[in-house]
C-alpha cells in the first residue's frame, strides 16, 4: 500500500468498492467542532491518494460507492452527497423530509440489478429505501413491531428483483418488504441463542450469516431461511462472507480485533486494525499498511499445485519444466498424460489455472506448459489460450500498483471488459484504456471512441487552457472517430460554463441535427436557426421556430425569421393553417403589402356576410395601393362594385347572383331576360365588345330568341364577325337562322360559312369566286359521290386556277 | 414502331421489390395494434394503398372496417382506431377533434396514427397542443415509392410541387432524399449523379447525408447513373398539350395511380370500367408511346391479327382445339377486351380532339413554341378567354405565352388578366399572384427592353464587342430564356421539312415534331457529354444549380451503367416519359423515371389555384 496512515484505520469511516475499487476514508466523522473539520480521503485500491479534502458538510453516517465509482456520503440529516472519484461534488439528494428531524442512525449502500441503492434507518426506527439513485424513488418500509431506537443489526437483500431489509430486534428477525413486515425464524437456531448482534449477506445475496450475543453463528440460505450449515460460538468484531468459487460452499470470515477466522478452516493473526470488503470470490482485508485478498484457492490451481498431484495439468507443467531442462523426463510425463488420453484437459487446466494466478511468472510457466502441451494435439481450438493470454495481459496491467485495480480473473469475467474500460476511464487512465481497447481489438464504436468521448468531456474542464487550445486538442485527438459526438462534448463544455468553447466544438459536429438542441440551450437561437436551416431538416427548423416563438417577443421573433427565408416560409405554411392572424402580423412586419392584400382577399372569401366581405376587400385595395399594384387594386375595386351590384339585384329580383364572376353574372342576367342590367354591366365594367357579343349571341341562341338575335346582329357591326353567328345557330340546330347570316360573313370566311350550314354549292361558288385552291379542296373533300356535277365544276375551276 | 432501336438494351431491375417491402412493413405496423380495428385512410392514399395491399390483405390483419378520412365526426364503433394519413396538419387536427369528442363522451378507445411516408414535428406539435399526445400512438410507414410500371416510380406526393416551388417549404426534400436513399440501398451503388435545380441539389445533399450516416454494403449495382431535375427547370413541356396516346389518355380521362376509369362514353354501357394501364396490358404497351395519329392504324392492324388468331381454329382437329382453348383462347379474349376498350377510348379522344378548335389550339401552341405570329396567338388566347372555353386551358395558354415570350408586354398582361378575371372571377387574383411568384405568368421586365437596346447598340459596334455585350445583357435579365435555350439546344426542328410521325427522327415526335421537350433534351445532352461541359450557356440560362458527382465505382462497364434513373422533383408528364423511352431505344439506355407525382398541364395549374378557400 502506498498510503501512510498515521492513526491507522481506527475511528474512521471506511468504504471500499468491490471489484478492486477505490477506498474512501473519513476520519472522525462525528466530530462536530467547526474548528477541526474531518478530512475525506480517497485512495485507489493500491493506496495511492487520489483526492483529499476537508469535509465541510454535516456529520456523515455512512460512506459507500456506487456502481459508477461515485462516492455516496450519507449525512445524519438524510442528505446524500455524491462525489466523483476525484472528490468533486456532483449532486445530492435527500432521503426524505421526515429524516431531518429523526436523523439517520445507520445507512447502507447496496447494489441491486437496478443499480446502486441506499437504505437508511432513522431515529424513529423506520427504514427508507432508494433502489436506484439514478432514478430516485424513496420507499418507506413498514414499521417493525417492538423496535425502539437502533436495531441491533440489519442487512439489505435483493432477490427476485425485489429489495428487502432483514432486521433483527433483540432475538426476533424480521423481513421487511414494500408492504409487510414478516417475522422469520432461522431453522435450527434455538431461542436461547439470544439476540442477533451481527449479520452478513453474501455478495450474491444468496447466503446469510447471523451471529448471536451468546456467540453462536448461524449460516444458511438467505431467503427463505434454510439449511443451517453450522453453529459456532465466537465473539467477533466484524463479519464478512465470501464464497468459494468452485465448491459452491459458502464460508464465513469472522474478524476480531487482531484475529481473522475463516469458519471451518483456519485462523490468521492480523497485524493491525483492518477492514473487510466482501468480493465476489473472496474478501479484501484492508489494513493500514497492507491489503490482502483472502480467497479459496481455485480448484484447478489446487489440482495443479497440490503436493504430489497427479492431475493432468500438474503432469503437463512438470513435463514442460523437464523439457526446459532438456531432460528426457519430459517425454515420460507427456506419455503418461497421453496414455490417459487427457492431454486436452491438461492444457485446459493449465490455461485456467494461469488465469487465476496472480504472479506473472507463475502465469507464464503455466501458459508455456499449456502451449507446450498444445503442440502434441492436432485438433485443439486455440481460442481459450489466446483469450486468456490477452486477458492476463490486461489484468496484469490494471493490477499494476500505479493503476491499482486488484481484480481476480473471476471478477473480471463477471464485471466484463466494457465495465473495466469504464472504470479505467473513470480513473482517467485514458491512454491505458485506449491501449486495452486496441489490444483486445474492440470495435472502435464501443472501445476507443467511448474512451475518447470521456477524455474530451474531461479535457474541456481544464481551466488552465484557452478555449482555442482545448478545441484544437480535442479535434486533433478525436478527429472523426465514429461514435464520438462533438455535441456531447460541447454540452459538457457548456455545463462547465464555457459557452465559447462549446460553440467552437460544435463547429466540428458534422450532423447539424445534433448542434441545434445545445445551441438552443445556450440561447444562441440565431445560430441554432441557421444551423437548422443548413441541415435541410425541416423538422429541426420547425423545432427551433417553435422554441423561438415562445422565447422571444413577437417583434424580435419576426425579425429573426426575416433573415431566414426557409424558416419563414415554413412558419408561413404553418400559420396559414393554424394562425391566420399571425400570418397577417408577419406580413405587416415585413411591410409586404402585396401579400397582405392577398391575405385580405383570401379572408374575404371566408366571410359569409357581404359587409364583412366588402370591408376585407377594401383593406385589400388599400394594401394593393400601398404595394403599387394598380392592377390588383383596380380588380379588387371592381369586384367590390360587382358584389354591390349583385346584392342589389338579388334583393330586387332574387337573382341569386352573389359571388358569381362578371361573366357568369351577365350570363345569369341574360338567361333571366334581364338584358338591360347585363348591358349596364357591360358598360360599367368596360367588358370587351367581343366578349359581350359572344355572350349575348350564345345566350340568345340557347334560348332560341331568334328575333332578338337578328335585331342584335343588326345593332352594329359585329366585332366577332358573322361566322360566329352561323356556327352558333348551327350548334343550336337552326339551319334556317344560320343561313340568314351567311351573306354577312366576310369573303375570307364565306366558304367556311357555307360549309357550316351544309350548303355545298354555295361553298363551291364562293371558293371558285375567290379562286382559292385549298378552299376548293376543302369543299371537294366534303362532297360525296352524289355531287358529281359539283365536283366536276370544282375540278375544272381548280385546273383553271392552277393554269393562271 | 420502326425505330432504329439498339438490340442490346439492358434489363431493368425488378421494382416490385419495393412493393413487397412496404407491404411487409404495413402488415407489421397493423400487427402492432392487435385485435380488431377500424382503419381510416387519407383519401389520396386510397389508390396507392390499393396497389400495395388490397382489402382482403387488410382484413387478414384484423382491419374491420375501412373509412375514408372526410374531416367529419366519425361513426365507427370499434374500440381501436388506426389512422393511415399523410403528415398534414389539417388531418391531425381532425384526429384531435375525434379523440377529444370521444373523451367528452366518455368513450375509451385506442388510437394509432400511421404517418406515411414520415411524420413531421409540426404534426406532433399539434397533437401536443390539442392535449391528445398521450392518447395516441404514432408510427411511420416508410412508403416512399410506388412502382407504377416497370420503369415508372412515383412518390405520389402531388403537393410536393406547390409546397416546394411556390411556398418555399422544403419539408419534402428530405422525403425525396430518403426515397433516393432507398433506391440506392436496393439498386445502387450509383456511379454517377447529375442534377440541375436547387431542389435537386438539396435532395442530393440530403441523400448523401443519409448515405454517410448509414452503413454501406458493397453490392452489385443494378442502376448506374442518376439524373435529378427540378420541375421549374422546364415549365414549357408540361404546359403543352399532350398528343402521345398515354399522355392524351391522362389529359382527358386522368390516369390515377396507373389506373384509368373509362366512363360510359367509352364503355358504351352505363357502367364505367377501371383499367390498369401498364406494360402488362399488351395492347396498351404497344400504343402508349405512339403519336395519336398512328394509334388507329396500330389498333386496326392489331384487330386484324387478332381475327387471324381466332380464325386459326377453323381448320383444327379436336386435339388442337383443346390446346387452343386451354392455352391461347384466354389470352386472346383478354386482348380482345382490351383492344375494344382502347379503340373506343381512341374514338372518344378523336371526337374531342379532332374538332376544329383543337387543331387551332395546337397550331397556336406550335406558334408560341416557335415564336411566330405572336399577335395572332394573343388574339386566339383572348378569344379563348372570352368564349369561356376552359378555365384551366386558358390559364395554360397564358402561361405558355408568358414562359416562351419571357413575359407579356405590360398592356397585354393587364388586359388579358382583366379579361380572365371577368370570365372566371376575381378570386383568380390570388392565382395570378401565385403564377407570378413561380415565374409562370409575368410582365416583361425592363430587362427585355435591354434586348431591344442591345440590338441597337450592337449595330453600332463591331462583332467582338457585340458578343461581350450580349453576355452582359443576358446576365442582367434573369428569368426564363426559352427562346435562347430553344436556339441553343435546337428544341424546335426546322418546320420546312415534313415530319413523318410514323418514323420519329427525334424526341420531337411526342409534340407532333414541333418541339423537343427541354427537360429530356438536357438529359440527352448531359449523358452524351458525360458532364455539363459545353452546356455552360444553357445552365446559365436555366439559372443553374447544376452538378455532376462521380460516386462509387465507374470502373465496371456493365449493363447497369446504361440504366439511368431520372428523378423529376415536382412531377413529370407521360409525354416526357415517352420521350425518354424513345431516347433510350435510340441510344441503348433504359430509363427509370422517378417522379414526385405524374403531372400534366391541368394538375400543374390546379395546384396553383387559390380559389378553393
UniProtKB/TrEMBL annotation, chain A:
The keyword Protein transport applies. Plays a role in vesicle-mediated protein trafficking to lysosomal compartments including the endocytic membrane transport and autophagic pathways. Believed to act as a core component of the putative HOPS and CORVET endosomal tethering complexes. Core component of at least two putative endosomal tethering complexes, the homotypic fusion and vacuole protein sorting (HOPS) complex and the class C core vacuole/endosome tethering (CORVET) complex. Their common core is composed of the class C Vps proteins VPS11, VPS16, VPS18 and VPS33A, which in HOPS further associates with VPS39 and VPS41 and in CORVET with VPS8 and TGFBRAP1. Interacts with RAB5C. Interacts with STX17, MON1B. Associates with adapter protein complex 3 (AP-3) and clathrin:AP-3 complexes. Belongs to the VPS16 family. GO terms for biological process: endosomal transport; intracellular protein transport; vacuole fusion, non-autophagic. GO terms for molecular function: actin binding. It is a peripheral membrane protein. Residues 3-386 form the Vps16 N-terminal domain. It comes from the Eukaryota. It is found in: Late endosome membrane; Lysosome membrane. Its main location: membrane. Residues 607-634 form a coiled coil. SUPFAM superfamilies: WD40 repeat-like (SSF50978). This is Vacuolar protein sorting-associated protein 16 homolog. The keyword Coiled coil applies. GO terms for cellular component: CORVET complex; HOPS complex; late endosome membrane; lysosomal membrane. Keywords: Coiled coil, Endosome, Lysosome, Membrane, Protein transport, Transport. Residues 484-797 form the Vps16 C-terminal domain.
Amino acid at each position: 500500500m502506498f498510503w501512510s496512515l498515521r492513526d491507522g484505520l481506527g475511528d474512521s469511516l471506511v468504504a471500499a468498492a468491490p471489484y478492486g475499487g477505490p477506498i474512501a476514508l473519513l476520519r472522525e466523522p462525528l466530530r462536530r467542532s467547526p474548528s477541526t473539520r474531518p478530512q475525506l480521503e480517497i485512495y485507489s485500491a493500491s493506496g495511492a491518494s487520489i483526492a483529499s479534502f476537508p469535509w465541510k458538510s454535516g456529520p456523515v453516517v455512512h460512506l459507500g460507492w456506487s456502481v459508477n465509482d461515485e462516492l455516496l456520503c450519507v449525512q445524519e440529516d438524510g442528505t446524500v452527497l455524491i462525489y466523483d472519484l476525484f472528490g468533486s461534488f456532483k449532486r445530492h439528494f435527500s432521503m426524505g423530509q421526515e429524516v431531518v428531524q429523526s436523523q439517520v442512525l445507520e445507512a447502507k449502500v447496496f447494489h441491486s440489478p437496478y443499480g446502486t441503492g441506499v437504505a437508511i434507518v432513522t431515529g424513529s426506527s423506520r427504514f427508507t429505501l432508494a433502489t436506484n439513485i439514478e432514478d430516485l424513488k424513496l420507499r418507506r418500509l413498514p414499521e417493525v413491531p417492538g423496535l425502539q431506537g437502533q436495531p441491533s443489526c440489519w442487512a439489505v437483500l435483493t432477490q427476485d428483483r425485489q429489495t428487502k431489509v432483514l432486521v433483527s430486534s433483540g432475538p426476533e428477525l424480521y423481513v421487511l418488504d414494500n408492504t409487510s413486515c414478516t417475522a422469520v425464524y432461522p431453522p435450527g437456531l434455538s431461542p436461547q441463542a439470544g439476540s442477533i448482534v451481527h449479520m452478513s449477506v453474501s455478495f450474491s445475496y444468496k447466503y446469510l450469516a447471523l451471529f448471536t450475543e451468546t456467540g453462536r453463528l448461524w449460516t444458511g440460505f438467505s431467503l427463505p431461511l434454510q439449511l443451517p450449515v453450522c453453529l459456532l460460538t465466537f465473539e467477533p468484531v466484524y463479519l464478512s462472507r465470501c464464497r468459494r468459487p468452485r465448491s459452491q460452499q459458502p464460508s464465513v470470515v469472522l474478524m476480531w480485533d487482531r484475529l481473522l477466522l475463516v469458519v471451518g478452516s483456519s485462523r490468521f493473526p492480523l497485524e493491525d486494525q483492518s477492514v473487510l470488503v466482501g468480493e465476489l470470490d473472496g474478501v479484501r482485508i484492508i489494513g493500514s499498511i497492507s491489503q490482502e485478498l483472502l480467497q479459496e484457492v481455485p480448484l484447478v490451481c489446487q489440482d495443479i499445485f497440490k503436493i504430489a498431484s497427479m492431475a493432468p495439468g500438474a503432469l503437463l507443467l512438470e513435463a514442460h519444466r523437464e523439457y526446459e531442462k532438456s531432460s528426457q523426463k519430459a517425454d515420460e510425463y507427456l506419455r503418461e498424460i497421453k496414455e490417459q488420453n487427457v492431454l486436452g484437459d491438461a492444457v485446459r487446466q493449465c490455461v485456467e489455472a494461469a488465469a487465476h494466478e496472480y504472479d506473472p511468472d507463475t502465469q507464464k510457466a503455466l501458459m508455456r506448459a499449456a502451449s507446450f502441451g498444445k503442440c502434441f494435439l492436432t485438433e485443439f481450438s486455440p481460442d481459450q489460450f489466446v483469450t486468456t493470454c490477452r486477458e492476463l495481459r490486461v489484468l496484469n496491467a490494471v493490477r499494476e500498483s500505479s493503476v491499482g485495480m486488484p481484480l481476480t480473473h473471476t471478477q473480471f469475467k463477471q464485471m466484463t471488459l466494457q465495465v473495466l474500460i469504464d472504470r479505467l476511464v473513470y480513473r482517467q487512465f485514458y491512454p491505458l484504456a485506449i491501449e486495452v481497447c486496441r489490444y483486445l481489438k474492440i470495435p472502435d464504436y464501443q472501445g476507443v471512441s467511448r474512451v475518447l468521448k470521456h477524455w474530451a468531456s474531461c479535457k474541456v474542464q481544464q481551466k488552465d487552457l484557452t478555449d482555442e487550445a482545448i478545441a484544437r486538442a480535442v479535434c486533433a485527438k478525436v478527429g472523426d472517430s465514429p461514435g464520438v459526438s462533438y455535441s456531447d462534448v460541447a454540452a459538457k463544455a457548456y455545463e462547465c460554463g464555457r459557452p465559447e468553447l462549446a460553440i467552437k466544438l460544435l463547429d466540428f459536429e458534422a450532423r447539424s441535427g445534433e448542434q441545434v438542441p445545445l445551441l438552443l440551450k445556450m440561447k444562441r437561437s440565431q445560430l441554432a436557426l441557421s444551423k437548422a436551416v443548413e441541415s435541410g431538416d425541416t423538422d429541426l427548423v420547425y423545432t427551433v421556430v417553435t422554441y423561438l416563438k415562445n422565447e422571444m417577443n413577437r417583434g424580435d421573433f419576426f425579425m429573426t425569421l426575416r433573415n431566414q427565408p426557409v424558416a419563414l416560409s415554413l412558419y408561413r405554411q404553418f400559420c396559414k393553417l393554424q394562425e391566420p392572424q399571425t400570418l397577417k402580423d408577419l406580413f405587416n412586419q415585413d411591410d409586404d403589402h402585396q401579400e397582405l392584400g392577398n391575405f385580405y382577399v383570401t379572408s374575404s372569401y371566408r366571410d359569409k356576410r357581404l359587409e364583412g366581405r366588402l370591408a376585407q376587400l377594401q383593406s385589400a385595395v388599400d394594401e394593393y395601393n400601398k404595394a403599387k399594384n394598380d392592377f390588383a387594386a383596380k380588380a379588387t375595386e371592381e369586384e367590390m362594385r360587382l358584389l354591390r351590384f349583385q346584392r342589389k339585384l338579388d334583393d330586387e329580383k332574387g337573382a341569386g347572383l352573389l359571388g358569381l364572376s362578371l361573366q357568369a353574372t351577365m350570363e345569369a342576367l341574360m338567361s333571366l331576360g334581364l338584358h338591360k342590367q347585363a348591358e349596364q354591366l357591360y358598360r360599367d365594367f368596360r367588358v370587351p365588345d367581343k366578349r359581350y357579343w359572344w355572350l349575348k349571341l350564345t345566350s340568345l341562341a340557347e334560348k332560341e330568341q331568334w328575333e332578338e338575335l337578328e335585331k342584335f346582329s343588326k345593332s352594329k357591326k359585329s366585332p366577332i364577325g358573322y361566322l360566329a353567328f352561323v356556327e352558333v345557330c348551327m350548334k343550336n340546330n337552326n339551319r334556317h337562322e344560320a343561313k340568314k347570316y351567311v351573306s354577312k360573313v366576310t369573303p375570307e370566311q364565306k366558304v367556311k360559312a357555307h360549309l357550316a350550314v351544309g350548303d355545298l354549292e354555295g361553298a363551291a361558288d364562293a371558293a371558285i369566286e375567290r379562286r382559292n385552291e385549298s378552299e376548293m379542296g376543302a369543299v371537294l373533300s366534303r362532297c360525296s359521290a352524289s355531287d358529281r356535277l359539283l365536283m366536276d365544276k370544282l375540278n375544272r375551276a381548280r385546273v383553271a386556277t392552277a393554269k393562271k | 414502331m420502326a425505330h432504329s432501336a439498339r438490340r442490346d438494351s439492358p434489363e431493368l431491375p425488378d421494382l416490385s421489390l419495393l412493393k413487397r417491402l412496404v407491404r411487409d412493413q404495413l402488415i407489421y405496423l397493423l400487427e402492432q395494434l392487435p385485435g380488431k380495428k377500424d382503419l381510416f385512410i387519407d383519401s389520396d392514399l386510397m389508390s396507392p394503398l390499393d396497389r400495395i395491399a388490397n382489402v382482403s390483405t387488410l382484413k387478414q390483419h384484423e382491419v374491420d372496417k375501412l373509412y375514408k378520412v372526410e374531416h367529419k365526426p366519425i361513426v365507427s364503433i370499434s374500440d381501436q382506431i388506426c389512422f393511415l394519413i399523410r403528415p398534414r396538419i389539417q388531418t391531425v387536427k381532425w384526429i384531435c377533434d375525434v379523440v377529444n369528442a370521444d373523451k367528452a363522451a366518455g368513450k375509451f378507445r385506442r388510437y394509432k396514427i400511421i404517418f406515411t411516408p414520415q411524420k413531421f414535428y409540426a404534426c406532433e406539435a399539434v397533437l401536443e397542443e390539442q392535449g391528445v399526445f398521450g392518447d395516441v400512438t404514432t408510427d411511420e410507414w416508410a412508403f416512399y415509392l410506388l412502382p407504377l410500371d416497370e420503369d415508372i416510380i412515383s412518390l405520389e406526393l402531388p403537393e410536393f410541387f406547390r409546397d416546394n416551388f411556390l411556398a418555399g417549404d422544403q419539408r419534402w426534400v428530405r422525403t425525396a432524399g430518403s426515397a433516393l436513399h432507398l433506391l440506392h440501398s436496393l439498386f445502387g451503388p450509383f456511379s454517377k449523379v447529375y442534377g440541375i435545380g436547387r431542389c435537386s441539389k438539396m435532395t442530393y445533399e440530403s441523400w448523401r447525408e443519409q448515405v454517410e450516416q448509414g452503413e454501406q454494403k458493397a453490392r452489385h449495382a443494378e442502376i448506374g447513373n442518376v439524373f435529378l431535375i427540378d420541375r421549374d427547370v422546364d415549365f414549357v413541356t408540361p404546359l403543352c398539350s399532350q398528343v402521345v396516346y398515354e399522355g392524351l389518355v391522362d389529359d382527358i380521362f386522368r390516369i390515377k395511380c396507373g389506373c384509368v376509369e373509362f366512363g360510359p362514353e367509352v364503355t358504351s354501357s352505363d357502367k364505367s370500367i377501371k383499367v390498369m394501364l401498364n406494360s402488362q396490358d399488351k395492347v396498351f404497351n404497344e400504343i402508349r408511346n405512339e403519336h395519336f395519329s398512328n394509334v388507329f392504324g396500330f389498333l386496326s392492324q392489331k384487330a386484324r391479327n387478332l381475327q387471324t388468331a381466332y380464325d386459326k381454329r377453323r381448320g383444327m382437329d379436336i386435339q388442337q382445339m383443346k390446346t387452343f382453348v386451354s392455352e391461347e383462347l384466354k389470352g386472346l379474349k383478354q386482348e380482345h377486351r382490351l383492344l375494344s376498350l382502347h379503340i373506343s377510348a381512341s374514338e372518344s379522344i378523336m371526337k374531342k380532339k379532332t374538332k376544329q378548335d383543337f387543331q387551332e389550339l395546337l397550331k397556336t401552341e406550335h406558334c408560341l413554341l416557335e415564336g411566330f405570329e405572336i399577335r395572332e396567338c394573343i388574339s386566339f388566347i383572348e378569344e379563348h378567354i372570352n368564349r369561356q372555353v376552359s378555365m384551366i386551358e386558358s390559364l395554360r395558354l397564358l402561361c405558355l405565352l408568358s414562359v416562351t415570350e419571357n413575359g407579356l408586354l405590360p398592356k397585354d398582361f393587364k388586359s388579358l388578366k382583366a379579361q380572365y378575371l371577368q370570365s372566371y372571377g376575381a378570386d383568380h387574383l390570388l392565382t395570378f399572384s401565385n403564377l407570378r411568384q413561380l415565374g409562370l405568368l409575368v410582365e416583361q421586365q425592363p430587362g427585355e427592353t435591354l434586348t431591344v437596346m442591345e440590338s441597337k447598340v450592337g449595330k453600332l459596334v463591331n462583332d467582338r464587342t457585340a458578343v461581350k455585350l450580349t453576355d452582359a445583357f443576358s446576365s442582367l435579365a434573369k428569368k426564363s430564356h426559352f427562346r435562347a435555350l430553344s436556339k441553343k439546344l435546337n428544341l424546335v426542328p426546322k418546320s420546312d421539312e415534313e415530319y413523318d410521325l410514323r418514323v420519329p427522327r427525334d424526341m420531337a415526335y411526342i409534340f407532333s415534331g414541333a418541339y423537343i421537350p427541354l427537360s429530356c433534351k438536357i438529359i440527352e445532352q448531359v449523358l452524351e457529354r458525360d458532364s455539363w461541359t459545353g452546356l455552360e450557356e444553357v445552365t446559365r440560362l436555366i439559372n443553374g444549380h447544376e452538378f455532376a458527382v462521380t460516386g462509387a465505382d465507374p470502373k465496371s462497364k456493365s449493363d447497369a451503367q446504361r440504366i439511368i434513373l431520372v428523378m423529376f422533383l415536382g412531377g413529370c408528364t407521360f409525354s416526357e416519359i415517352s420521350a425518354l423511352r424513345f431516347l433510350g431505344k435510340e441510344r441503348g439506355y433504359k430509363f427509370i423515371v422517378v417522379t414526385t407525382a405524374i403531372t400534366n398541364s391541368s394538375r400543374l395549374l390546379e395546384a396553383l389555384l387559390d380559389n378553393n378557400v
